[in-house]
Structure formats: C-alpha cells, structure tokens
Amino acid sequence: MRKFPPPIRLPEALPCVRPVVGRLSNGIALHSACAGAQDVVRVSLVFEAGSRFQQHALEAGSTLALLSEGAGQWSGAQVAERFDFLGSSYERHIDKDFAMLTVYSLTRHLQKTLETLSEVALHPTFPEAELRTYCAKRRQQLRIDKERVAYVAREQLPALLYGRAHPYGAYAEPEQYDALVREWLQRFHGSFFTADRCLIVATGMVGERERRMIGDFFAQIPRLPCTPSPLPPPAGGQPGKSVEIAKRGAVQSALRVGRVMFGKAHPDFAAAHVLTVVLGGYFGSRLMRNIRESKGYTYGIFASLVSYRHTGYLSIGAEVGKEFGRAALEEIGKELQRLCDEPIPADELALVKNHLCGDIMRSLDGPWAIAESLVEDLQSGLATSYAETLFSAVKSITAEQLQQVAQKYFQPQSMTSVTVG
Q: For the whole model, what pTM was predicted?
C-alpha cells in the first residue's frame, strides 16, 4: 500500500493534433482534424460578423438568431425538425468580432446535415412574424436581465473602459428591439456572411470524403471583398475612476474592477494569464482566500482576461453584501498591489503552473475541445499550435518575470471600478 502520493510531473511537451488545412474553390480556409473514436463530426462556420460590425443596435445578434427561423423553402419549425430527424444538433454563438454556426452530426448523416446547414447559412428568409416574436421575447428578457446587479455591472465595465460609443463598449436597451426591421438583417447577412469573411473548422471523424462534402456545400458561399473596419481607440478607462450605480431594492452589490489589456497575440499575454489565475482564476486563488474565506464578504470572486481579436481587458468581479462593497474594493486593491510588490512564492507558483498546464491539456482532450481550441486560435490570428506555445511559456515563466509584468499592468491605481447595488 502506497504511503506517499506519486510526484507530480508535467510532460515535457504538449501533444497536439495538427489540422489539415485546405481551401474551397471560393477561397474559404477549411481546417480539419481527425480525432476521437466515434463516428461523429462537428462542423463550424466562423464568420467575421460580430456585433462590432453592425450599423444598428442588435442587428448582428438578431441576424444570427433568425438564420434558422426560415431558410429556403423551409420554415423555422421544418429546419428544427430536419436536424432532429437526423440526430444532429445546431448551435450558434456571437461575440464582438465573430459569429459562428455549428452542427454536430453522425458521420452517416453528415451530407443531409450539411445540406440543412447550407440552407440556413446561404438562404435565410427572415420571416417578419418570426422577427416580431423574437424581438418581443428578447425585449422582455433584457428587461429582466437589467434588474440583476451582476448583469448591469458586467455591461458597464467595458462601457467604462472603451466608451459607450466604442464597438467593444456598446450595450443595448430593451426598447431598441422595437426599431429592428427585416431589411437590416438582410443587408447584414448579405454583407458579412460571405466567403471572404469565413473560415471552417471540422473535427471528429473527418477524412477526405467529409472534406469534399463540406467543400461541395460551402463553396457556394458568395465572395465579397472585405472593407477594412479599423477600430477607434478606447475612449474611456480613466485610471482610478470609480463609479457607483444605485439599484433600488438590491440586497447585494455587484463589483467589477478592470482595465484595458491586450489580446492573446501580445507577448505579455502568457504572464498576464498566469497572474490573473494567481489573483482570482481558481478556487484557491488569492481573492478567494482573502475576500471569501478570510473576510466572508462573498460566496465567490473571480478574475479573468477577456480577449477580443484586437484587444482585451482584465475583469475582476464579485457580488457582496451591500455593506461590504467598499471594503471588498479595498481588499482587491491590496491583492493587486501585493502582486506588484512581492514575488509569488515558489510553492504557490508551482501549484498555479500545474493547474494551468492541466487546463491547457484538457483544452485539447477530445474532438470537440480540439475544435474550440482551433477556433479560438484562428479568431485571435494565432498559429494553430498556440496551445504548445502557451504550455511552454507557463512552464518556464519565473516569479521575477511575473512581478515585472504585474508592475506594468496590475497596479491598483490603473484600474477602473463599477459598483451596482
């Protein structure tokens, strides 16, 4: 019987699946990786059609949501029935930069699943009745969301950092759903769901036959040369600014603290990522031990790096009793200053490195995880072997290097904060 646990040893290198990269006849890059042991395939169409490209509030997300509510000769109900009959599932996701359509299919039903997906992507009809129903539901949901202090704080922090008029700082009001018209969605779809703004990621049991099948359907996506869309510089983010927003009847206060940072391609990203995990990126983090375990101000607190294509920001967040808001902000400031003033102890740094390396390894465990990793790398403009680069950087980084990066980006006086409650 073993008396002592075995030593923890990280692998010397991260084993990665190398995607096969090809191009469809219309120029779309197809990244495919054969992985897994089941006869299933995931196909994702990723369009550079996020909310930062919209001319009118809500049109990007509404366009994506309504693609499947009528396509070609099929109604929205018929589209859903076709996916269900084939045992396939359909998902959609949008952020500031990208819109993504994803299907999961049994290999034997892939052709019919792709046929349905191609109708959704190429020939949406945007029925007026479906648009009005969608707007009514979303308007009511947004009104409910805006009663939650955590939701308001989450939308206010990027607005403070980038400016309300900036594409990365903008947020919607419920009444703006009343202004949406079908013609806006048709124009947005025609302008941004094009081959020049698209890439495809396929994982699972993907071979030459499946790649040909994908090419047969999506080489039909029309080409339309991209017009550059330069981002304006952030117009907010006054260092040290603290905003309080009253919410009548709230029993808790939601806190958000952060600053504008950078995307994954930045040379300091790996170090900032490690520092963020030390600060509040796992259950044993410094913020959890201080503000939850020691002070009892909150049930949970987190820190994360939000990454966009061209920028990113640090976000620290918690919900606390309304009487503890200012005290919690003071403790957050102390923990930030501690990162700047003291090298991280060797045992704490080893624990965080093990945690992070395990996370990176899990991010490549299975065909769906591989797909998510590929999509994130490609959206960030990185090589598809970025996980290996990050794994190596995390393993080799020193406490001294981390302290230097903390002094550049984690000074408490450089942060902006918002309290809602």
A: 0.92
